[in-house]
């Protein structure tokens, strides 16, 4: 009987903790989904969507934020290489593209997202990030 009560108590505590975890997850979810809408000038697109956008959009700027070695190995046609670490050095030349559509990419998507957030903070308004990169 003691074993049964012990197991029952354990099960009830486990169920309570699971419910608590689910409720906490539900409470956090709107905050997490709000992170994307916090940057309305940035649109996250697939590589296929980027290819379509590049093909149909006149005057689009394509920025590869990977390092020089990665860029030399392969890059999208007409892409300009501005490694993430060198972004600040290139801001004066990017200023003229502030109102133009800009596609930003890297290998996995992390560096391009970081650069897009920085550019948006500087007033760039038509930013497209290849979400999972081109790797």
From TrEMBL:
Q: Where does the Rhodanese domain start and stop, copy by copy?
A: 56-134
The record ties this protein, via Gene3D superfamilies, to: Rhodanese-like domain (3.40.250.10)
Superkingdom: Bacteria
Enumerate the InterPro entries for this protein: GlpE_sulfurtransferase, Rhodanese-like_dom, Rhodanese-like_dom_sf
The name this protein carries in UniProt is Rhodanese-like domain-containing protein
Q: Origin organism of this chain?
A: Turicibacter bilis
